[in-house]
Design brief:
This protein is an alpha/beta fold. The protein is built from 8 helices and 8 strands. Helix 5 links the parallel strand 5 and strand 6.
């Protein structure tokens, strides 16, 4: 809606990355004159740049501001909440662990807000083999999850972290919509011979 409103208002609209993991929607916006850019430096004078729901890192936001363009921040509120957790709950003495895909745009953005030691890990196996520089069981550890993380993997990792670190502080940050869809997929699988998931192939939600 934000993209359509800006385009219909006659603005030179571009989105920082595809606005959504849906090629049909992206093609629709291209027909409206909306272009996709991969970096802030591709934005020009008079452009309106829309930040997609995944959010961006501190650095990317600052680079956008330096371009003097209009910024419409469409970062998902669930993602914004994790940005706030990373920024306010971490210090130089804490350890921040984010359960998520390290290369995912949402994860890259979140990690930029955390202070101190930090790591993005995607499985319990990675958690088990990971050590902070000072592997202290008394270390104040903050654990959060990418909003579209696998729910079962998250539950397993929470249990492990609670046993590994005495002072673990855990934030349940998986998006409620994601959680509902995963639970529904489980229930559907119980009563079906096959389940077909329709969605963008590069989407964490689909996976």
């Amino acid at each position: 809606e934000l993209v359509e409103q800006a385009a219909n208002a006659g603005k030179q609209v571009c989105t920082l990355g595809p606005i959504i993991h849906n090629r049909h929607a992206v093609a629709h916006f291209e027909e409206m004159g909306v272009r996709v850019i991969d970096s802030p430096e591709e934005a020009g004078e008079g452009d309106t740049v829309i930040i997609r729901s995944h959010g961006v890192s501190r650095d990317v936001y600052q680079r956008l501001e330096s371009r003097g363009v209009e910024i419409i921040d469409a970062t998902c509120p669930f993602v914004k909440r994790i940005h706030k957790i990373a920024a306010e709950e971490t210090t130089d003495d804490t350890g921040f662990i984010l359960l998520g895909t390290p290369t995912h745009p949402e994860v890259l953005g979140i990690m930029s807000y955390a202070h101190g030691e930090k790591a993005a890990l995607s499985t319990k196996a990675e958690l088990e083999s990971f050590c902070f520089a000072q592997n202290d069981e008394q270390k104040n550890v903050i654990l959060a999850a990418q909003t579209t993380q696998n729910l079962q993997e998250w539950k397993i990792c929470k249990k492990f972290i609670k046993k590994r670190f005495t002072n673990a502080k855990i934030f349940d940050t998986i998006c409620s919509v994601t959680e509902n869809r995963q639970n529904e997929a489980v229930e559907l699988a119980k009563i079906s011979d096959a389940v077909i998931v329709i969605g963008g192939k590069t989407s964490s939600n689909t996976k």
